From TrEMBL:
The keyword Electron transport does not apply. Pfam families: PFK. GO terms for cellular component: cytoplasm. This is Phosphofructokinase domain-containing protein. GO terms for biological process: fructose 6-phosphate metabolic process. Its cofactor is Mg(2+). Residues 131-434 form the Phosphofructokinase domain. Coiled coil: none annotated. GO terms for molecular function: 6-phosphofructokinase activity; ATP binding; metal ion binding. It comes from Ceratodon purpureus.
Length: 522
């Protein structure tokens, strides 16, 4: 046993041997509290088998025992009382940009702390007895293979021997033609070179009971779900069922969403890669349009309800005249409409590049409805509809244009990820396994303010994150395009008419106190 620098307490009620130790006292009703295997089961912690140093020769078949001293241990483990501050800006005034209000209208929050991710010195599973299962669900996203690979590597580092890959999402629990695959380091060694998912993905879900029956039958003790909002909702439902059956199993999610629409997280894996690839499509549209007589380039990007890829790729490219996202309404026709503005751009510059998110302008399309196998709304094809409207408008206006429409969506999604995302996925995959060995369940892993955290799944799937049209980032985006508001002006409450036009009645904050502290305190 190595020292007692890392005490056994999970709830911060013991001092250990270090008088300087920080003991986190959770607030009443802590929204970031995590369910733990020991809440239901009598599971004594054991010393971690996770080591970052190998004492053996990797070429030898059987590595010699690892030599680790207390000093090494101190440096590789995260104490269970470590926390990450969720909101790091202290706002000085309610008029500050980016301010958020809670349900009661309060803007000065109590600090919220999320649990820091990472390996613990004490674990709640004997690796020899662990049977892990991994599934990837929903649509593709660059980096899925990196995460699968890293989960397998890290499980093996702890000493796990039984790892199952469930094929084609949740369907793989019931489809006899696609039984689980036994995974190991050798099998997954090179999968990160490719896009897609080595295990396959799907939408739609077999009955929950069948999934839980299979997990029980296969004696799974750690279940890793790599997926978006839908998959995490599924993961939580599976956790609840397993909990009712008192199964000794932990459920850990790894958020996959190319749309970057998960609450609280700095970003999700694959998003940077998607933006990079989307920017290439925009630049191609620009090249085509700038070489054509009255060239119009239209690019459709992914984003069912969140316009993040569209917004970021637009800023990254810098060659966009108009950006349309689901979060911002606009009119097509009339003095303030998109088409009149496009005409002006063509007349002035001979070129117009438009980038649209697939979920934009859905209120303008007819005959849309229904849901896909996962329950997601089926959208009308806004990109094609928009291109048709543009061609009609210019033809009626007798202005010749050369319009090119680019839909790179599946090319973007199928890509292997860039180097930043390769690294990001590795860290997420590792932390998912650390969370499982630490005994946490119904959790997901993500990065908040650049630090990796374990979070309760329900908190991240409350609602999809969307672009805030009042945010600094969206303002940066429309500053880059130079586009106007495509809505007729309205006399909203809070706006007052002045000789100079509509002005907000909200008073800016008073000038800050300046001068020496002594003169300020007089
Ligand atoms: N509310 C839910 N409860 C249980 N399972 C769900 C729920 N929503 C979606 N799922 C399942 O999760 C899987 C992935 O969902 P989907 O929305 O397609 O992708 P994503 O996980 O990327 O959001 C599907 O198999 C779907 O049936
Ligand atoms: O054509 P598919 O497979 O339904 O995927 C399209 C959808 O995938 C997404 O990129 C991401 O959706 P998921 O996170 O649910 O996989 C959406 O923006 C897009 O609408
Ligand atoms: Mg979804």
């Amino acid at each position: 046993m190595v020292g007692c620098f890392n005490c056994l307490c999970r709830r911060g009620n013991s001092g250990g041997s270090n008088p300087q130790a920080f003991h986190f006292t959770p607030p009443f009703n802590d929204p970031f509290a995590l369910p733990h295997l020991s809440d239901q089961h009598n599971v004594p912690p054991i010393e971690s088998t996770y080591r970052t140093k190998s004492g053996g020769n990797p070429i030898e078949e059987t590595a010699s025992p690892t030599r680790v001293d207390a000093d090494d241990m101190r440096r590789i483990y995260v104490h269970d009382d470590d926390r990450v501050l969720v909101k790091i800006v202290h706002f000085g005034h309610p008029s500050s940009v980016g301010i958020e209000y809670d349900e009661s209208g309060d803007w000065q929050f109590q600090p919220l702390w999320a649990r820091r991710a990472g390996p613990r010195a004490w674990i709640y599973f004997n690796p020899e007895q662990v049977r892990a299962a991994i599934v990837t669900c929903g649509g593709l996203c660059p980096g899925l293979n990196d995460v699968i690979r890293q989960v397998v590597f890290t499980l093996e580092t702890y000493g796990v021997k039984h790892i199952l890959g469930i094929q084609y999402g949740f369907k793989g629990f019931v489809d006899k033609n696609y039984p689980p695959i036994k995974l190991n380091r050798k099998l997954v060694q090179t999968i990160n070179m490719e896009g897609g998912s080595f295990l396959g993905v799907s939408r739609g879900c077999p009955p929950l009971k069948d999934i839980v029956d299979r997990l029980e039958e296969w004696n799974v003790s750690m279940f890793f779900v790599i997926g978006g909002n839908g998959s995490h909702a599924g993961a939580t439902a599976i956790y609840e069922q397993c909990d009712k059956r008192r199964m000794k199993m932990v459920v850990v999610g790894i958020p996959k969403t190319i749309d970057n629409d998960i609450e609280l997280l700095d970003k999700t894996f694959g998003f940077d890669t998607a933006v990079e690839e989307a920017q290439r499509a925009i630049n191609a549209a620009y090249t085509e349009a700038s070489s054509a007589y009255n060239g119009v380039g239209i690019v459709k990007l992914m984003g069912r309800q969140s316009g993040y890829i569209t917004m970021y790729a637009t800023i990254a490219s810098g060659q966009v005249d108009i950006v349309l996202i689901p979060e911002v309404t606009f009119t097509m026709n009339g003095k303030y409409g998109v088409l009149e503005y496009m005409k002006k751009r063509i007349e002035q510059n001979g070129i117009c590049v438009v980038v649209v998110a697939e979920g934009a302008g859905q209120d303008l399309l007819e005959g849309v409805g229904g849901t896909d196998a996962s329950g997601n709304p089926i959208l009308g094809d806004f990109g094609k509809w928009f291109t048709g409207k543009v061609k009609d408008f210019f033809s009626k206006a007798k202005v010749p244009i050369d319009a090119k429409y680019i839909d790179p969506t599946y090319m973007i999604r199928a890509r292997a990820c860039n180097s930043g995302d390769h690294i990001f996925c590795s860290i997420l995959g590792q932390n998912a396994v650390h969370g499982a060995f630490a005994g946490y369940t119904n959790i997901t892993v993500g990065v908040i303010n650049t630090h990796y955290c374990f979070l309760p799944i329900p908190i991240v799937i409350r609602k999809a994150r969307m672009v805030d049209p009042n945010s600094v980032m969206y303002h940066r985006c429309v500053t880059s395009t130079g586009q106007p508001d495509f809505n007729p002006p309205i006399h909203a409450p809070g706006l007052v008419a002045t000789p100079g036009g509509l002005k907000s009645s909200l008073q800016p904050h008073p000038p800050p106190a300046r001068g020496s502290r002594r003169s300020r305190n007089k």
